[in-house]
Amino acid sequence: MTIAICPGSFDPVTNGHLDIIERTAAIFDKVIVAVLENPSKEPLFSAAERRYFLQKVLAHLPNVEVEYFQGLLVNYAKSKDAKVIVKGLRAISDFESEFQMALTNKKMNPEIETIFMMTANEYSFLSSSMVKELVYFGGNPEGFVPPLVVAALEEKLGRRRSGK
Ligand code: ADP
Fold first, then answer.
1. Number of structural domains found in the chain
2. Mean of the pLDDT values across residues 119-138?
3. I want to staple 145 with a disulfide (CB 3.0 to 4.6 A). Which of 2, 100, 149, 163 is the partner?
4. How far apart are CA 121 and CA 118, in angstroms?
């Protein structure tokens, strides 16, 4: 059984993330979506909220699990018996840091492969931070994130916007 890990901060999950996870689930026996517990930037949503959104929107995929992780990704992958890390690539700008990360991980554990999947055309511009900024300034994120995330963003950022 080949287990793949899709890591990220998912603050919050976007349709771009979902596309990568769904395509990964169609290839590998099992996919662990690993939610980074302590991203370097202060997250908008708690790790529990980020995981909850992912669980809800991925409930239709029986071979996908959503878990938390912290620390070194290769150590986490090893602890889960996962041989593959799958990352999405949006633009050339993603390439440099992903390249660096993949080579570092390879050095730390040569048994674990990092595989890159190209973003779907319609999501190539999409990032969690772009969506948060959009909502903060009153834009409508429908079509960029799942409906339950639209509501959660509006609830959290709409309140901030109006200073409540
Ligand atoms: P972000 O860069 O949006 O904060 P994360 O750290 O949550 O994203 O990213 C988790 C993974 O999902 C990364 O491999 C990232 O490249 C990928 N990803 C994020 N957004 C997209 C997208 N729109 N299309 C393809 N892959 C994406």
1. 1
2. 93
3. 149
4. 9
Query: Does residue 129 belong to any structural domain of this protein?
Result: no
Q: Domain containing 76 — which CATH number?
A: 3.40.50.620
Output helix, strand, coil percentages for the chain, rounded to the nearest 5: 45, 20, 35
The whole-model pTM stands at 0.94
Q: 126 CB less than 6 Å from ligand 1?
A: yes
Strand segments (E) across 70-120: 84-89, 113-118
First vs last C-alpha separation in the chain: 50
How far is ligand 1, taken at its centre, from the CA of residue 164, in Å?
30
Q: Which residue has the tokens 């070194």?
A: 72
- Is the shortest distance between the CB of 16 and ligand 1 below 6 Å? yes
What pLDDT digit, counting tens, does each position of 69-85 carry?
Answer: 999 999 999 999 999 99
Domain that holds residue 26: 3-124
The verdict on residue 151 lying in a domain is no
17 CA distance to ligand 1 centroid (A)? 6
